[in-house]
Design brief:
Helix content: under 10%
Number of strands: 6
Distance between the termini: 47 Å
Radius of gyration: 21 Å
Strand order of the largest sheet: 1-2
Mean pLDDT: 89
Structural class: mainly beta
């Protein structure tokens, strides 16, 4: 990867990371930090890298217990690209 920066006409510093051939392993949280004599600030963003097309994957769900009359929330952790729909059956 290549890190670069330039200054705009307005005086803003634009910094960037350039990854020529992005791979799934390049996904993750990236953080940018700017610092001067007054202080430091950061911003982070999550980058997700998908294969062009891949088979959907659903992670195994653990056994779930519930108490009658109480609220129940069940999650379905699905991955793959693209995901067109997630459906439920009983």
């Amino acid at each position: 990867f290549v890190i670069g920066q330039y200054v705009t006409v307005a005086g803003d510093v634009i910094s960037h990371v350039n990854i020529s051939k992005v791979a799934v392993e390049d996904g993750g949280t990236y953080e940018c930090a700017a610092e001067n004599r007054v202080g430091r600030t950061t911003h982070s963003a999550r980058v997700r890298v998908y294969l062009f097309v891949c088979l959907p994957i659903i992670r195994k769900m653990p056994p779930i217990s519930a108490v009658a009359g109480e609220q129940l929330a069940v999650t379905c952790p699905a991955a793959g690209f693209p995901i067109h729909a997630v459906t439920w059956e009983k």
